[in-house]
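Session log. Operator J.P. requested a structure for one protein chain; no other inputs attached. Running the standard single-chain path with token output.
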Amino acid sequence: MGAGVMIAVATGLAGCSSEPEADVESPGVIVPGGPGERASVVDEGQASQHRRAPRVTGADVDYMRMMIPHHEQAVVMTELVPDRTDTERVRSLAERIDVTQAGEVEAMEAWLDRHADAVDGNDGHGGHGDEGGHELMPGMATPEQLDQLRSAQGDEFDRLFLELMITHHEGALTMAEDYLPQGVEPTALHMAQEVITTQTSEIEHMRNMLDG
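Structure written below.
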């Protein structure tokens, strides 16, 4: 047998006798749990699913359901402005609040359409516009206060509108700040932070208007 043939045979035997490589198990991916929950370890495929579909908790849904009617009342108050004051600063403020909060209501309702059913014990919108729940939300104007606002004109209207809206905004801040430590879903958390940022600035502006 020639030297070339012997090398070829030896190479072939070496290839046949080599052991197959052992499968190396993936160490897995750590996925954080919700508030008060332990993290879990899942394989890479499951981890990608977790990233694509963030968890939603009852705290996320409850915040949206409460903030919607809270914002809706602010819009009701701003709609009274054009017929009751000629003060341009009040008109401009009311228009800005109306546009911002009406837009946020639409975004929150769309969020609930996507996520509310994922939370056990919650379905649909849960009657977020129920008047009976208003007393549970900080900063909400009472029916008597709204009637007083509707009856006011000129400088009296300006003062009452600003005072009620400051209280209303402060209530929204309380709700958002209470929710943030409990929330999980990123979009809901972002919306709550936007409420804090926007309405903190508006409160300062309204107080300056009252002082001026």
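Operator note: The two ends are 109 Å apart (CA to CA).
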